[in-house]
Amino acid sequence: METDLQAIEVMPAVVAALREALGPRVVQLPHEFAGRHHADASRMPCAEPIALVRPGSTEEVSVALRICHAHRQPVVTQGGLTGLAGGACLLGGEIALSLERMRGIEHVDAVSATMIVLAGTPLQMVQEAADAAGFLFPLDLGARGSCSIGGNLATNAGGNRVIKYGMMREQVLDVEAVLADGSVVGGLHGMIKNNTGYDLRNLLVGSEGTLAIITRVVLRLRPKPSAVSTAFCGLPSYEAVTTLLSRAQAMLPAGVSAFEVMWPSYYDFYTGRLPELRAPLAGKHAFYVLLESLGADPERQAESFEGFLGAMLEEGVVEDAALASSESDALAFWAVRDAPGENARLLPGRVSFDVSFAIAEVGEAARRCEAALRARWPRANVLVYGHLGDGNVHIVVQEPDWPSTTAREVQDVVYGVTGEMKGSVSAEHGIGTKRMHVLGLTRTPVEIAAMKAIRVALDPLGILNPGKLFS
Amino acid sequence: METDLQAIEVMPAVVAALREALGPRVVQLPHEFAGRHHADASRMPCAEPIALVRPGSTEEVSVALRICHAHRQPVVTQGGLTGLAGGACLLGGEIALSLERMRGIEHVDAVSATMIVLAGTPLQMVQEAADAAGFLFPLDLGARGSCSIGGNLATNAGGNRVIKYGMMREQVLDVEAVLADGSVVGGLHGMIKNNTGYDLRNLLVGSEGTLAIITRVVLRLRPKPSAVSTAFCGLPSYEAVTTLLSRAQAMLPAGVSAFEVMWPSYYDFYTGRLPELRAPLAGKHAFYVLLESLGADPERQAESFEGFLGAMLEEGVVEDAALASSESDALAFWAVRDAPGENARLLPGRVSFDVSFAIAEVGEAARRCEAALRARWPRANVLVYGHLGDGNVHIVVQEPDWPSTTAREVQDVVYGVTGEMKGSVSAEHGIGTKRMHVLGLTRTPVEIAAMKAIRVALDPLGILNPGKLFS
Questions:
Q1: Domains: count for chain B
Q2: In a domain? residue A253
Q3: A296 and B162: CB-CB below 8 Å?
Q4: Residues B381, B326 share a domain
Q5: Are residues B69 and B189 in the same domain?
Q6: Which of A176, A209, A206, A183 is nearest to A74 (CA)?
Q7: Within this chain, do residues B352 and B399 fall inside the same structural domain, yes or no?
Q8: How many CB pairs under 8 A join A and B?
């Protein structure tokens, strides 16, 4: 009892006000959450919050922000802490507002193919609820078990099947969110088309916790595919890669659901280091592509997918191809593409990039980056791979025993090429704190000024995730 | 010479400054554009502009806005003047800025499947350029020959194939635009994924000329479909309609590219009044659906489409169906759906609506509207039809010799139901001036306040399309 009173006596006024309004179950003090992990997966530095607020409802989020607003108290919203840009990390002096208690599926409308969920719901729970209702929720990424829908929205998450289904912003029909002053926007509308003023939904999606706290959303569900065709192809040139992409998009009846490209450095590295990987192809090629088509007609689709691959082999677009004849084949192909999941073990101290370009430019951009990196660091691992159908390429650079200053030099090389070739310094991971210094390579000063004006308009006191995105 | 001097003497200072900076070819005075039509297709009132500015480049748009900004001069941006909400109409005292001289395709990138076009380019010119390059530009609407890409973006245009390809916002990768003070945003990036700060592109799309003037855009092209399957179906109930929709989405290999629903009042009215229409079905049904699937595999698709229809007939979801066996059959089916093109002649003085709901709610919403309208005006024509796959329904209400006050009463009925059932008062046409009085039925006061704050942030002097969207 005495300890508690002591704690309350030294409490900042804003924490005392929050605790009084929301109670000790919602508002925890540092000694109550001791040992809790606060950082996201970005490896960026992270401070301790002055209090942890875990609201159970939109109303409680609103009360919390109203109080923080009155005290000009900075707030960092946290979801599953799987972000890769430091957007959820604490810089010091903030309150952490976690949506972990706001999880659950509130409503499934099987006729409209929509679902209302709380923002703290893990992605995998949404995928499973969609599946149980006979639908597909198509967004998918490695962190599915921990990442939350609210975090997926705040960062506009991507993943493997963006080429067919779009990014997170394409999966959401409406958002309910609490603005900095505690007021609530969003009516949880379930209609697909709604041209009534500015697109607040798309403004909040991808805003990385700086404009509002998303509390509930209406998600769009898709028909569950009944046919999967998967192939692993070896190709002679980047030109052949883009030809295969456009032919597949034009000729496959169900379209393309994944088009994952791996450069030889990537393929050789992982198939050499990970003995459990079954190399899908016997020979060596200039490029490797995992091609997938998700459709609705198992019998006819298998026939036309095989016919398509035959035509591409005959034409020389593809040099060699392995067609998955079972689910385990397909899983073996995906294992090659998912090998970077082992990076923490295989490539300590690596520097990673998530850049994008017009599809026609990706080959040249990657060539320039690789050449510059190898010229400067001849013994480094330089692994290139990505979602080519979206123009999105990941580059991983590593050498054991690099001094700590090398990361910045490696960034200068890759971001330099990205800026020169009009690419994006973040295709799908966001800016957070990790990429703030390179935002200006993709966005002009006028654009950043416009973003700042919008931020000030919606959060005049600057309490939502200050120090993130831009300062 | 003397006339010119006189005209210049009475010219407002802002017009004189514009004329001096941009010349008489770009800046025209009222006596020089006498007889020109300024109103859009909304039938809303429209004043004369104090000057007409027709820039030929982004730079000239920027100069024009810099001058207007310095003089606090209101500006209305105009495209093809085919809008249906009055967004391009003049309220009095504005300068009209027309993008008619900024037309043309600047660049086609066949590898990235993108195209850079000037905002004043007519939609049809874009469709034709895409076709010539071996692609499809999927947005399509009746005004294709006159409407401009910039206007399509400003209103986030929809149309018939939204269910497969999305609305205008899904067709654009980046926009270049001039802000109220003349500064230019947008780098004409050609990448699909770009998570670098706020989504300015989606904020400008649908903002109806109130936030910026879009000058150039990077459009996304799609593979040209090689197979078209079309059927006209009669169904027994709204439940059967939504069942057909979800089955078609799950079972048709190429998915659904159009799902146009016509209520019996619609079908009977047009097939009765337009002798050139060939009624696709012999009998009467509770609902009619035009179903289309665009795909890539002509042979196998025809087979599976026919198999699907057979299964739906057997199950009783569909009572009767006509399958198009030729392009002329398909055109005859579409003619029934396109019959409202004759409304100006057939239904003078009509009141039209463009509302949307969650798909599961459309049947009940339409039933309530029809019942209320028929109870109040038993002799009125009440025609209901729409893009049901998007939850979007159009309602046309008309009775000859109605007093002019009736329109507002009819609106009260339909918008009343829309508000009650959490629908949108504008699914695809926008707000403009025509629907400003009902914006509050779909958007909350907090949302409208947030929109106003954003508008003030980007256009502090309020010179861009004042009096539109909200005041």
A1: 3
A2: yes
A3: no
A4: no
A5: yes
A6: A209
A7: yes
A8: 306
Q: What mean pLDDT is reported for chain A?
A: 96
B168 shares contact with chain A (CB less than 8 Å): no
Band of the pLDDT at A1, cuts 50, 70, 90? very low
B422 → closest Cβ in A189, A254, A457? A189
Question: Does B293 touch chain A if contact means CB atoms closer than 8 Å?
Answer: no
How does pLDDT run across A289-322, given as a tens digit for each residue?
A: 999 999 998 989 999 999 999 999 999 999 999 9
Exposure string of B298-326, with b = 16+ CB inside 10 Å and e = fewer, is eebbbebbeebbeebeeeebbbbbbbbee
Nearest to B461 by CA among B155, B67, B79: B67
Tokens of B449: 């306040």
The answer to whether A364 contacts chain B (CB < 8 Å) is: no
Q: What is the pLDDT of residues B429-462, one digit of tens each?
A: 999 999 999 999 999 999 999 999 999 999 999 9
Q: Which residues pair with B220 in a beta bridge?
A: B114
Query: What is the average pLDDT across A266-290?
Result: 96
Please check whether residues B25 and B101 belong to one and the same domain: yes
Interchain contact, A194 vs B454, CB within 8 Å: no
Residue B295 touches partner A, C-beta closer than 8 Å:
yes
**A299 interfaces chain B, CB cutoff of 8 Å:** no
Q: Which of A190, A295, A431 sits opposite B196 (nearest CB)?
A: A431
Beta-carbon separation of B450 and A200 below 8 A = yes
Amino acid at A228: V
Residues of A within 8 A of B207 (CB-CB) are: 198
pLDDT at A282 over 70: yes
Taking residues B324-347, report their average pLDDT: 96
| A182 and A241 co-located in one domain | no
The pLDDT of residue B187 is 87
Query: Domain ends where: A205, A223, A241?
Result: A223
Distance CA A285, CA A46 (A): 43
Pair B85, B57 in one domain: yes
- Tell me the residue range of the domain where A67 lies: 2-98
- Residue type at A181? D
From the list A169, A439, A446, which residue is nearest B196 (CB)?
A: A439
Q: Does A393 map to a domain? A: yes
**3-class secondary structure, A233:** strand
* pLDDT band at B404; cut points 50, 70, 90: confident
Provide CB contacts within 8 A for B247, sequence distance 6+: B308, B312, B317
Residue A396 and residue A422 in one domain: yes
CATH number for position B284: 3.30.70.2190
- Cross-chain Cβ contact A439/B223 below 8 Å: no
Query: Is B469 touching A (CB cutoff 8 A)?
Result: yes
Tell me the β-bridge partners of B262. B288, B385
- Confidence at A5, pLDDT banded by 50, 70, 90: low
Question: A300 to chain B: which residues are within 8 Å by CB?
Answer: 253, 297, 300, 303-304
CATH number at residue B364: 3.30.70.2740
Question: Is A357 within 8 Å of B430 when comparing Cβ atoms?
Answer: no
Asked if B361 and B280 sit in the same domain, the reply is no
Residue B81 backbone class (left: φ over 0; alpha: ψ -120 to 50; beta: rest): left
**pLDDT higher than threshold 80 for residue A2:** no
ipTM, two decimals? 0.95
Helix (H) or strand (E) holding B397: strand B392-398
CATH number at residue A78: 3.30.43.10
Contact between A447 and B200 using a beta-carbon 8 Å cutoff: yes
pLDDT tier, B160 (very low <50, low <70, confident <90, very high otherwise): confident
Report the share of chain B in percent with pLDDT over 70: 98
Span A229-255, pLDDT tens digits: 999 999 999 999 999 999 999 999 999
**A386 part of contact set with chain B, CB < 8 Å:** no
List B residues 98-137 in contact with A (Cβ-Cβ < 8 A).
109-114
Say if the Cβ atoms of A192 and B390 lie within 8 Å: yes
pLDDT-derived band at A9 (thresholds 50, 70, 90) equals: low
Closest CA to B108 of B89, B88, B128: B128
